[in-house]
């Protein structure tokens, strides 16, 4: 059987007594009639596997802490600079002549 998406030959595998056709190139999965119903029935009767515990995040190093502090200081300076009004450049006495 050919993949409807890219035309490659589908590979058939069996998982838990259910035949699944998949494309090794685009990773598309196709089921024959009744196979989705079997999957749904088995998912209802079997309890879901417990999720593995998430690994603890490592403590930030002193370098990362210093880098974060510098970034915060830069952000504060940029925020302060953007709040100050724009100063108009002083005009020279020549600008009065050419008006």
Order of the strands making up the biggest sheet: 1-2-3
* Main sheet summary: 3 strands, antiparallel
Flag low-confidence runs.
Answer: none
Distance between the termini: 82 Å
Percent of residues in beta strands: 5-15%
Percent helix: 25-40%
Explain what you see.
With 99 residues, the protein is α+β, with helices and mostly antiparallel strands. The protein has a domain at 11-45. Helices cover 37% and strands 13% of the residues. It has helices spanning 35-45, 62-83, 94-97, and strands at residues 11-15, 18-22, 29-31. A 3-stranded antiparallel sheet has the order 1-2-3. A hairpin with a 2-residue loop joins β1 and β2. The longest helix is centred in the last third of the chain and has 22 residues, at 62-83. The radius of gyration is 33 Å and the shape is elongated.
Question: What are the main properties of this structure?
Answer:
13% strand; elongated; 3 helices; 3 strands; 99 residues; three-stranded antiparallel sheet; alpha+beta
List the helices and strands and how they pair.
Elements: E1 11-15, E2 18-22, E3 29-31, H1 35-45, H2 62-83, H3 94-97
Task: Put the structure in a nutshell.
With 99 residues, the protein is an alpha+beta fold.
